Amino acid sequence: MPSLIPSSDQPQLELRGIRKVYASVVANDGIDLVVAPGEIQAILGENGAGKSTLMKIIYGMTAPTEGEIYWRGQRVQMSSPNQARALGIGMVFQHFQLFETLTVVQNVALALPGRPDLDDLCQRIHAVGQRYGLPVDSKRLVHTLSVGERQRVEIIRCLLQNPRLLIMDEPTSVLTPQAVRKLFETLRQLADEGCSILYISHKLDEVQELCHSATILRSGRITGHCIPAQETPASMARMMIGKELVPCQRPKPITSETSEAKLQVQALSRTASHPFGTALKDISFELKPGEILGIAGVSGNGQQELMFALSGEDPLPARQAQMIRLNGQAVAHLDSASRHAQGLGFVPEERLGRGAVPAMSLADNTLLTAYGQGLLKHGLILRNAVDQFSQCCIEGFRVKCSGPQAPANSLSGGNLQKFIVGRELMQKPQVLIAAQPTWGVDVGAAAFIRQALIDLRNSGASLLVVSEELDELFEICDRIAVIADGRLSPVVPIEDTDVETIGLWMSGIWPHEGMDHSPEIPSISQPASSAMGSEVYRVA
Ligand SMILES: Nc1ncnc2c1ncn2[C@@H]1O[C@H](COP(=O)(O)OP(=O)(O)OP(=O)(O)O)[C@@H](O)[C@H]1O
Predict the structure, then answer these.
(1) Buried/exposed 198-211: b ≥16 CB within 10 Å, e otherwise
(2) Quick one: which atom of ligand 1 is closest to the CA of 220?
(3) Ligand 1 atom closest to Cα of 55?
(4) Mutational test site, ligand 1, from 412, 415, 442, max ligand atoms within 8 Å of CB
(5) Whose CA is nearest to atom 29 of ligand 1?
(6) Torsion of CA 309, 311, 314, 315, to 10 degrees
């Protein structure tokens, strides 16, 4: 249980009457908030409740329409992130703020005052990474990093600024359980040293474990406060969404051994496309109709490469076309549009940039993948049909936004995720590949998306779900496998395994073919790839 909030007369931060109005939305309305030194305070709320907007106001990225900010007793106009950083405020963003064409060390240098010596900075990055269990290679270009690795860079960049207030907007959404544990140790240590932490998360068990206090937002207003240690995740969820959560209903598998696989992957191998990528090694599995196969693993172990190979973003040479078969047809050499035309849907892990074009409206983003749903005629766009499709998606998936013309980047993270998942599900793909489908989505909406995935499976479709959330995989999948260092473990029925076993497999240790699934092995060889806070080994 988190220790008591250290008492102090003077708050570290105080907000009075903060209001933020966008063209069509009141994102924050009359927010009063007090954060004590050393306090870890959670900010809870549904997608679109106004959490990120409030944090951006504190960090000087967004100007409030009304209201006052006091920093250690002094009124301040927070006019830019530079000013916030100079005061000692650091922020880890939900949507990473990194320059993809620069290296890790260059990105970190940009956030520090003056012109730090890059060699010296590499050493400091290494030291912080070692100390807090966040290993990262400073010389790598950011675009070659997985989402989990980018998140490490964000966290390290903040820690190097020695913050007095740390704002963390869903910092653990793509971290492994071990990395989360390490991070929490770090955060508790920082709090003990007097650093205050504002912590946004939809993972209520983590909030309960870490936070001294919690403030609940609904529709831009504060609707309550609680002490998470005195609550349960279910009671906090109720406070957030105003009703009870309904658990997912997953009927027994409807697939049979004799049904023909919809997706077959046979001995898929691929060299890494860049020096820091992961090569795919002899991956084989198949997806039957009416089943969900989950792939667990530590981010950066080949998930991205596998997704690119399966979706068609990174097609293989024609002579290897047979490595991936969709409905019996060899497709490994085809691009994503051709695979899409054959019934493949794809929800990528990066919602901004890959899942949606940020500056385009939701309607135009609909067209990117749903053009085959009667939205075009003789090559011309049927605008009414596009708007209707988008509106159905907005209503069906409870996306909070001003309508089909809202730019994708004006939606809160969770709402955009619901839109992207909804757009793909509405097309009723025969095979759906989804990476981190509930990343950043609130508990109510996550349950809704999981049920929608199960419903698609019940209709006879085949789903491949790649997620770092083991609980999620165990809730929705029929079978599960692990990817580590570009290799795939045996695929096992979900009822024949458990979280501990899969957790162990995630470190690259699993039984050989023909053995039972109890991993008594291991004779461990060299480290296979860096994982969060622990080495990954593979079986010799
Ligand atoms: N730049 C913007 N332009 C217009 N509306 C915006 C903009 N940024 C945020 N909003 C709107 O303000 C509201 C609050 O969004 P915010 O991102 O603060 O929510 P959130 O609680 O952080 O949600 P999530 O949990 O999904 O990240 C939403 O309705 C969102 O669509």
Answers:
(1) bbbbbbbebbbebb
(2) 14
(3) 18
(4) 412
(5) 48
(6) 80
Atom of ligand 1 nearest to the CA of 50: 18
In eight-state DSSP terms, residue 407 is: B
State how far the Cα of 497 lies from the Cα of 435, in Å rounded to an integer.
22
H/E stretch holding 447: helix 443-458
CA of 29 to the centre of ligand 1 (A): 13
* Mutation pick for ligand 1 pocket among 18, 24, 53, 402 (CB with most ligand atoms within 8 Å): 53
Q: Give me the residue label for tokens 């240590």.
A: 189
Cβ 466 vs Cβ 436: under 8 Å: yes
User: What does the pLDDT profile of the chain (540 residues) look like in tens digits?
Assistant: 554 444 556 899 999 999 999 987 899 999 999 999 999 999 999 888 999 999 999 999 999 999 999 999 999 999 999 899 999 999 988 677 899 899 999 999 998 888 889 999 999 999 988 877 778 899 999 988 877 788 889 889 988 888 899 999 888 766 667 678 878 888 998 899 899 999 999 888 899 999 999 999 998 999 999 999 999 888 888 888 877 777 767 777 666 666 789 999 999 999 987 777 889 999 999 999 999 999 998 777 899 899 999 999 889 999 999 999 999 999 999 999 999 999 999 999 888 888 899 999 999 999 999 999 999 999 899 999 999 999 999 999 989 898 999 999 999 888 999 999 999 999 999 999 999 998 878 888 888 899 999 999 999 999 999 988 888 899 999 999 999 989 999 999 999 999 888 888 887 888 865 444 444 333 323 333 333 333 222 322
Ligand 1 centroid distance, CA of 107 (Å): 26
What are the start and end residues of each CATH 3.40.50.300 domain in the chain?
13-241
- Centre of ligand 1 to C-alpha 159, Å, is 26
Residue 500: which H helix or E strand, with range?
helix 499-505
Task: Pick the closest to residue 466 from 237, 273, 310, 294 (CA basis).
Answer: 294
CATH class of 13-241: alpha beta
Q: Distance, CA 52 to ligand 1 centroid (Å)?
A: 7
Cβ proximity of 368 and 357 under 8 Å: yes
Q: Kindly provide the ipTM of the predicted complex, given to two decimals.
A: 0.97
Measured between alpha carbons, how far is 197 from 428 in angstroms, rounded to an integer? 43
